[in-house]
Amino acid sequence: MLVWVIYDITKNKTRSRIAIYCKGYGLYRVQKSVFLGSLNKNEIDELSLQCDEIINKKEDSVYIFPMCDEDFKKVKLLGQAFDKKMVKDEVIAKLF
Amino acid sequence: MQLVINSRGSYLQKKNNCFLIKNDDKVFEISVKKVDSILITTSAYFSTDAVKFAVDNNIDIIFLDHFGNPYGRVWHSKLGSTTLIRRKQLESSTGERGLNLGKEWIICKIDNQINLIKDLRNSRAKKGKILSEHIISLEKRKFMLTKIDGSLEDKRNNIMAIEGMAGKEYFGALNYIMPDRFKFDGRSRNPAKDEFNCLLNYGYGVLYSMVEKGCILAGLDPYLGFIHTDNYNKKSLVFDLIEMFRILIDKTVVYLFSKRKVKKEYFDQIKNGLSLNQEGKAVLISALNETLEKKIRYRGRNIKNRNIIQLECHRIANNLLKQK
C-alpha cells in the first residue's frame, strides 16, 4: 500500500528520529518533512507505534495517509519531482 | 530489488536500518527491507557492519569478476537444511537413478532450446525453413538422449557428447538470426571473442551464483554433481543444474540483439577478445532483471522466472528425501 508520512515536529532530535524510522521502513524522502513509499499493514502499524512513542503530543503531529493506486495515478508533480517507479517498488535493480 | 554496485571506488556502509552507498559526491540510501541481494561488479569498499547487516537480513553479497563470474560471496555459514538430503544425494548420484535425473535435466535444456528457436521462427517467416531444420535435428538429439539407459558411470560420456552436439546445433541457429554486424563463430570463453559470447558469459556468471544459492537453500551440496565429474573445487551440481536455466540468459541476450539494444560501445577490446564495460553491464543486468521478474506458468502455478530456480532445487531435494 502506498503511504504518505507527513510530520511537523518542534524538537530537532525527535524530528530526525522520525526521519530515520521512515527511511528504515523503506520510505523515500520526497520533501523535507514528507515521506512516501510502499508499506504493508504491519509495517504501517509498527511505524505509527514507534512515532507515537517519541512525539510530544501537545505540540507535534505525524500523519500517515494511505493512498490507492488509482488516486496516485492522478497525482500532479510540478518542479522537482520524485521517482514514481521508485516509490511504488517497481525498480527491480538499482545500479550505482 | 537488486542493488548493483557498478561504479569504481563506491563505499557501502550501514546507517541505522539502511544501506548507504557513497561515491565522490553521490549518496544513495536504501532501506534493508527493499534489498534482496547486493551485486558488486567492480572495485568497491564496504564496512563489516554492512556485511553483518546483510547476512542478518538474509541478503547475499556477490562479487563478480571482469567476466561476470562470481569469485566470492558473503553468506551465512550454515548448511541451509538437513544433512540427510546430502546423504541421499550421494546415494542417488551413481547408477541408474543418477542417470535418469541427469537425463531429465539435459532433456529439459534441449526442450528450452527448441522452444526458443520456435519462438524466433514465428516472427521470421523468411528464415523459417532453415530454423525448422535446426529444430528437427535438435529433436533428433533429444530422442537419442531418451534412448540412453544403464548406469551413469558408463554413459556419462554419451550424454555429454549429445549435449555438446545439441549445443552446436542450437548456437548455429542463433547465429543464423543474428544481425550481420554481430555474427559469431561458436561459443568462446575466457575471453569471449565476440559481442554475443561476451554478453552470454557475463549472464551465465550471474546465473551460476543464483543456482549455487538455490542449491544451498534447498540443502543440496553444490559440489556433488551427477553428470559433471568430481574435481578440486568443482561445483559439479551447479554445472548440472544450470543447464535447465541457461535459457533465461539466452532469451535475454538474443532479444537484446534482435531489439537492436546492443551497441559496439558496450565492449572494450582486450587481448584475444572482448570484455563488457560498465555501460554494457548496466544494460545487461537491467534486461536480465526484467526477464527474471516476468511471471510465467510453470508446473501449474504462476511464478516469477527468478523463483523457478529455487522451486526446482527444492523439488529435487524433496524427491531425494522421498526415495528409499
What layout of secondary structure does this protein have?
The complex is a heterodimer of chains A (96) and B (324).
Chain A: E1 2-8, H1 12-24, E2 28-31, E3 34-38, H2 41-54, E4 61-67, H3 69-73, H4 84-87, E5 93-95
Helix pairs in contact in A: 1-2
Chain B: E1 2-5, E2 10-15, E3 18-23, E4 26-31, E5 37-40, E6 44-46, H1 48-56, E7 60-64, E8 70-74, H2 83-92, H3 95-122, H4 128-147, H5 152-177, H6 195-218, H7 236-258, E9 267-270, E10 273-276, H8 278-293, E11 295-298, E12 301-304, H9 305-322
Parallel strand pairs in B: 1-5, 2-6, 5-7
Antiparallel strand pairs in B: 2-3, 3-4, 7-8, 9-10, 11-12
Describe the structure.
The complex is a heterodimer of chains A (96) and B (324). Chain A has 96 residues and is α+β, with helices and mostly antiparallel strands. Chain A has helices at 12-24, 41-54, 69-73, 84-87; strands at residues 2-8, 28-31, 34-38, 61-67, 93-95. The longest helix of chain A is centred in the middle third of the chain and has 14 residues, at 41-54. The model of chain A has no long low-confidence stretch (mean pLDDT 88). Chain B is α/β, with parallel strands linked by helices and 324 residues long. A 4-stranded mixed β-sheet of chain B has the order 1-5-7-8. A 4-stranded mixed β-sheet of chain B has the order 4-3-2-6. Chain B is globular and about 60 Å long. The chains are: A alpha+beta (96), B alpha/beta (324). The A-B interface holds A 20, 23-27, 43, 89, 91-96 and B 1-7, 10, 16-18, 21, 23, 26, 28-34, 282, 285-286, 289-290, 292-293.
